Structures are given as C-alpha cells and as structure tokens.
Amino acid sequence: MKIFASREVDPGEPRVVLQPETAEKLVKLGIEVAIESGLGLSLHHPDSEYTAKGATVAASRAAGLAAADLVLRLRPPSVEEAAASRPGSMHLGYLDPFSNPAVLEAFARSGATAMSVELLPRSTIAQKMDALSSQANLGGYVAVLLAAGRLNRVFPMMMTPAGTITPARVFVIGAGVAGLQAIATAKRLGARVEAFDTRPVVKEQVQSLGAKFVEVDLGEVGQTQDGYAKPLTGDQLAKQRTAMAKHCADADVVITTAQVFGRKAPVIVTADMVRGMKPGSVLVDMAVETGGNVEGSKLDAEVNVNGVLILGMGNLPGRVSATASQMVSSNLANFIEHFWDKKTKTFPANREDDLWKGVVVVKDGQIVHPAVRRAMGLTG
C-alpha cells in the first residue's frame, strides 16, 4: 500500500498530519510512505527528516495524490481536488461531513472512499485513534491559557506582604473532553473552578479534578451512545441559561465548550448574561467555529462588551501545533495499524469492523454514512 501525506493549503493551519517518527512507524509495517515536499516545514521538519525515516518525497502534490492508495490530510480538500481523486483510492482526515456536502458529492463522483475521523465511534479500543478527542483535549488547555493571558488579574491565591490575593473564579460550561481539560488546567493554575454539564453522569469526573459541579434540574437529559450530550429542548435551554446567569456574573473567566456534533452549537450565554458579568472578566467561546455558545462572539476575534472580553479564537489546538501534530499523527497511524494485515499487507483487513464502518462516509460512488445521509436529506 502507498500512503501520501499532503500539506495543508490553508495558510492558517500550522498542524502537520504526519510526523517523521510516525512515518517511520508506518514504513516499518511494510507501507510505502510519500510526503508532499515541505509537509513539515511549519514545525521545522525538513523533507530530509522524513527521508531519513524511510519516506520518499513525491514529485508534486498531483503526482502524490495520483499514486496513493491512502491519502492523509487534516482539513477537507477542495471540491476540485476531491473530484479528481483516483478511483479506488482512500482518503482519511477531517471532513466536517455535515457542513461539506459538495466535497462528499465530489468524492462520490470520483469513485474514491472518504473517511471522516470525527465520526469514529467511541469505545475503549478506539481511544488511541480518536483524533477528535485528542485535539479537543488540547483545545481545553489552550482556552484556559488564552483566558489567563487576557484576564487582568492572576489565577492563584497569593499570600503577599501587600495582603492576600484571592483566587480567580473560573466557570466551565460543558464537561466533555475539552471541558475536563479546561477544568484541570485552571485548577493547576490555582483558580477556583466550577463546572456545569447537562449530563449528571460527569459529576464525579468534575469533582475528581477538584472543581465544584453545578447542579441544575433540567428534567430528562442524557448522552448519546458515543458519550456526547443530547440536544436540549427550548425550555431546557431557557432553564439552563437562567441558572447559568448567576454563575457567569460571579466568574472572572467563563469557558464554554458545548457542541452538538452535526448541528449548530447552542447559544448558552446570552447578551443579557454577558452584560451581567463584571467588567474585566473574560469569556472564551470554544464553539465559535460551529456557531458559538456566546451571543456576540465572532470567529478569530476579540469582542469587548462593556468591559467583558469575548474571545472567539478558532483552531485552538493549532496554537500548540507541535503537540497537536504529534497527537493527530499518532491517532491516524494507530487507525491504519489497527486495520493493517501484516501477513498479507492489505488494508483494510476487515471492512465489517464497526470502527471502519463508523468513519466511512463515501464509498462505491455513494454517500453511505446513515447520519450524514439523513442530514443531507437522502433516502434509502
């Protein structure tokens, strides 16, 4: 099998889909690995580091794509590039499938197989392949550092000759992977942390990190089979906002992490709630790329509302690009290794595996993933 790792064309994307050490791991499995020239330059990895590990450098991007059995990339390709995919080839990376129907249709026309890492089913065996969670983890970490950098006071309690400095109050909304890392990071910095999630089942995890779990009776709530929070009804959202308002008003930092995969992010912090916060406090909207949890947040911008600073920075993992690249590269390599048959040197070894079927969005000229088909209004 031949793998081609392509450079990201978005100038704002510093992450790299394949690290030299990971390329070496794939080569040792008996896989031919080619990279696009300059693949690792954003992380100071010249092509020579890859060739020293057994990879080759493709003559051009077009040549690498044309020769590859499996293409690795981070962000979705253009419609034109997806349509030009070689029939029978496979493509693995972030597809954002619910927002890119034209790209999926182009893949279908090409006869290629397209796999979306965001759709990987959650299970114990899948953890080492879960790129979505690994990047969310880093996003939670970065969100706290951004808030700490923009807050006009320190996080930890300090006993000084000038008096006692009380700890900053941090309120985290959403205790998924990103939220839990945000809680842990804020605690490490010495803040007093509170957290809320619609799923009561995460209370113990929040408390184990030293934070206080805010309980709000929303009636019947829960999580999907993959561990994501279920969407709330309009009445539940209104009740949640009412309860959140006081905690936001008391907080120095509020971090929102609530996203519903495949849908627009719910607005949790309204404009009235923002106006009720203390001047000098900071809001970090981690869901800004999918519509935003904070009313008034803007992608890749800071918005000042009566002294309350709303941070809507996109691609938070990209701010720690070396670590983020290391993690996503390892995640994808683990996925490949899981489905690689070392004896026959075939990939995938088992197309009936639930993990494989979970990530495949396009194959045999059709969009096949049930959830994506429903979102696109396709029948059958």
Question: How would you characterize the overall build of this protein?
Answer:
The protein has 380 residues and is α/β, with parallel strands linked by helices. It folds into 2 domains: 2-129 and 321-376, NAD(P)-binding Rossmann-like Domain (Rossmann fold), CATH 3.40.50.720; 151-314, Rossmann fold. The protein has 13 helices and 17 strands. It has helices at 20-28, 47-51, 61-67, 79-83, 101-110, 131-150, 177-188, 203-208, 234-250, 271-275, 321-338, 354-359, 370-376; strands spanning 2-5, 32-35, 56-57, 70-72, 90-93, 113-116, 158-160, 163-165, 169-173, 192-196, 212-213, 253-256, 282-285, 302-305, 308-311, 360-363, 366-367. An 8-stranded mixed beta sheet has the order 3-2-1-4-5-6-16-17, sandwiched between helices. Strands 11-10-9-12-13-15-14 form a 7-stranded mixed beta sheet, with helices on both faces. Strand 16 and strand 17 form a beta hairpin. Helix 6 packs parallel to helix 7 (177-188). It is globular, with a radius of gyration of 22 Å.
Outline of the structure:
The protein is α/β, with parallel strands linked by helices and 380 residues long. Helix content is 33%, strand content 16%.
Protein topology:
Elements: E1 2-5, H1 20-28, E2 32-35, H2 47-51, E3 56-57, H3 61-67, E4 70-72, H4 79-83, E5 90-93, H5 101-110, E6 113-116, H6 131-150, E7 158-160, E8 163-165, E9 169-173, H7 177-188, E10 192-196, H8 203-208, E11 212-213, H9 234-250, E12 253-256, H10 271-275, E13 282-285, E14 302-305, E15 308-311, H11 321-338, H12 354-359, E16 360-363, E17 366-367, H13 370-376
Parallel strand pairs: 1-2, 1-4, 2-3, 4-5, 5-6, 9-10, 9-12, 10-11, 12-13, 13-15
Antiparallel strand pairs: 6-16, 7-8, 14-15, 16-17
Helix pairs in contact: 1-11, 6-7, 6-11
